[in-house]
Structure formats: C-alpha cells, structure tokens
Amino acid sequence: MCMEEKKSVKPHSIVWKDRKAGSISGVKDVVSFDESCVILETEQGRLTVKGKDLHIGRLTLEQGEAELTGRVDSLVYSGSDPARRGSMMKRLFQ
Hints:
Blueprint: E1 13-17, E2 21-25, E3 27-33, E4 37-42, E5 45-60, E6 65-78, H1 88-92
Antiparallel strand pairs: 1-2, 2-6, 3-4, 4-5, 5-6
C-alpha cells in the first residue's frame, strides 16, 4: 500500500521597514530579478516586487526565506489563491 506524500506548507509573511529593506518567508522560488523588479513564487502565489535598486541580500530556499533591499514601490500578488485550488466537487465536500 502506497502512502501519499504531503508537501509541507511553509508560513508566508512579509516584513518591510521604511520601504528600504524587508524579509519574505514562504518563498518557493525566484522566477526573475533585476534592479527594478523581483518576482518570487511563494506559498500564496506569485509575488512581484517593483522598485529601484532592488537586491536580494539573502536567499535560503530550503527554509523559504528571502531578504531584499532597495526602494520598494509596490508588492503585487498574481495567480490563483492556493486555498481555492482543487476541483469544485472537492471544495464542495470538504
């Protein structure tokens, strides 16, 4: 009998200080980055950070953490809400 493997979901949070530096937890992958835009895949969907002079200071994907510095102008999520994933029938009978 085969048991299903369950992925551990890391908590997702964002802590930002004075629009200059911050940390993000629940990071699964870095999709792309440059000095004006960082795109991260997180536990809550794709997160786009836009600004100026952005740098990834520390990245630990095993722990799901990233630290960014630079001037932040916006943080935007895209993609579906992970809580709403799955078939409609599955959601109805949960």
